[in-house]
Design a protein that fits this description.
This protein has three domains: 243 residues, no CATH class; 146 residues, 3-Layer(aba) Sandwich (Protein Transport Mog1p, Chain A); 53 residues. It is of the alpha+beta class. The longest helix has 23 residues. The chain is built from 16 helices and 21 strands. The relative contact order is 0.09.
């Protein structure tokens, strides 16, 4: 009984503290109204900086200094006219084919190369950049973090009473999960308004944002193999979005006296000429049930009908029935034995079998272990393989009951890891966006055909150009085509 009274006393003090904590509201920079905000601006910047490190590691950055500098110039101009010009804004291109853009607290914005391929003018680009800056200016991401923190406080209250539920120690543990949080429709509407405002203030025709969203609706972009979600997964579509944007754009043009706002289609298209389009095989690809990595020069088989998600940080291979998983990744090191020992230490794995093996002449360690998780005990086959002063790691996991169905398959896959020496598998090139001028006035469909667009890619290329099959375009108009790699 005394113990219960003690807990209730602690809970009482805790709730009293919470009541004093919650009214510490902040003024929203956009609305000027008070709102619940548990992150200071300094907290936002620190959180954004920490999460940025994880984003870069998890999804990779598209390295094109010239293109990045061009985009960043427009981005910085937008940041300076935002409601939070004092922030240091950071812009990066994520090396992913998914069509999406993301904002993190503190001034961090990411565009995938997939969305860059889908945009068709500087005006569209500036409006979408302004939309993402709008999320930061209105503190939408920080609001979501505050809600998450309050939810964790709720878990902490429950833990005092039940002693059974752990509490997360830091919001930073949400990490790249921030990219998967879904904004509300009210957040989206406000970000649209701010995107229109900011892009208009730097001289662009914000009506082009409506044009881009019309293209997105026709594309209906989903997730890609990097694991990143598509636009509508994180940015819900407000009602009458296109019409509202056009009205807002007209209002801002009249307010600012913009007689001839910029579109700059040709400038933008020339800058993205040569942009990698779709999956980049140089970062790894599957052909005939074998995974090849041309840059790191290795290969291994993939179980038939298993789904492969190839991310910069790891390869995820999921069974058809989703009851088994193979993870493959690389760590820096020279000793497979030390890597295996470190794995056991960090996971508290119960080792059932451990031995030194050669995998196609490569020094390796093999483990079979049981690992306790929140969902039960997993049985795991692990290989730690030394190659080129790196350690390549496989973990094949499933339940103890299903291990007899998958254990041999795990072993078969991992034992066939080997050097890649076939020039045909090494010398691969990605598809790229090519910018070409039409020769005569014709429909977009015929223009693309005359430029070599294959029938199976015609619909995709029409959408990439933000047009319609029967849209008539003048001679010498720049259009996008997808140039095939090999």
């Amino acid at each position: 009984m005394k113990k219960i009274y003690t807990r209730l006393a602690v809970l009482g003090f805790f709730l009293m503290g919470l009541l004093f904590w919650i009214p510490s509201c902040a003024i929203n920079p956009v609305t000027g109204k008070q709102e619940l905000m548990l992150l200071s601006e300094r907290d936002e910047v620190n959180l954004g900086r920490e999460t940025d490190i994880q984003v870069v590691k998890e999804y990779g950055i598209y390295e094109d200094p010239k293109l990045t500098a061009y985009l960043n110039d427009i981005f910085q101009r937008l940041g300076r006219v935002s409601h939070r010009p004092q922030l240091t804004y950071h812009f990066k291109i994520v090396d992913a084919s998914v069509v999406n853009a993301f904002a993190l607290p503190g001034g961090y914005v990411y565009f995938s190369r997939g969305i860059l391929a889908a945009l068709n003018s500087e005006a569209e680009l500036a409006a979408v950049m302004g939309h993402e800056i709008g999320h930061i200016a209105a503190r939408h991401s920080a609001q979501q973090y505050s809600k998450a923190q309050l939810a964790q406080v709720g878990l902490g209250v429950g833990a005092i009473l039940t002693e059974s539920m752990p509490i997360l120690s830091s919001l930073a543990q949400l990490g790249v999960g921030m990219l998967f949080l879904r904004f509300s429709r009210d957040n989206e509407r406000q970000a649209d308004d701010l995107g229109v405002e900011y892009s208009s203030k730097v001289g662009y025709d914000a009506r082009q944002m409506a044009r881009f969203f019309e293209t997105l609706e026709r594309m209906n972009p989903g997730s890609d193999r990097s694991g990143l979600p598509g636009w509508f997964s994180t940015h819900p579509n407000p009602e009458d979005r296109v019409q509202v944007i056009r009205v807002r754009a007209k209002e801002w043009q009249e307010k600012l006296g913009l007689k001839d706002p910029k579109v700059d289609k040709e400038s933008y298209l020339r800058e993205i000429d040569g942009l990698v389009f779709g999956d980049d095989p140089r970062q790894g690809y599957v052909a005939e049930n074998v995974f090849y990595h041309p840059l790191l020069r290795f290969q291994f088989p993939v179980p038939v009908r298993w789904k492969v998600n190839n991310r910069p940080s790891q390869v995820q291979i999921v069974s058809e029935s989703q009851d088994a998983l193979i993870l493959f990744f690389m760590i820096v090191g020279t000793s497979s034995r030390e890597a295996a020992r470190d794995f056991v230490s960090k996971t508290n794995a119960l080792v059932l079998k451990a031995d030194a093996v050669l995998v196609n002449g490569l020094t390796s360690q093999r483990l079979i272990s049981d690992i306790r998780t929140q969902r039960g005990i997993l049985r795991v086959t692990s290989y730690f393989i030394e190659k080129d002063r790196k350690i390549f790691v496989f973990h094949g996991s499933t339940s103890i009951e299903r291990f007899q169905n998958y254990g041999a398959l795990f072993d078969h896959t991992m034992k066939q890891f080997k050097d890649l020496a076939d020039p045909k598998r090494i010398d691969v090139k990605p598809d790229r966006i090519g910018i070409r001028a039409t020769k005569t006035s014709d429909t977009l469909e015929n223009a693309l055909r005359s430029l070599g667009a294959p029938n199976e890619k015609l619909k995709e290329m029409v959408l990439l150009n933000g047009g319609d099959f029967n849209q008539v375009i003048p001679a010498n108009t720049l259009v996008k085509v997808v140039e095939r790699g090999h």
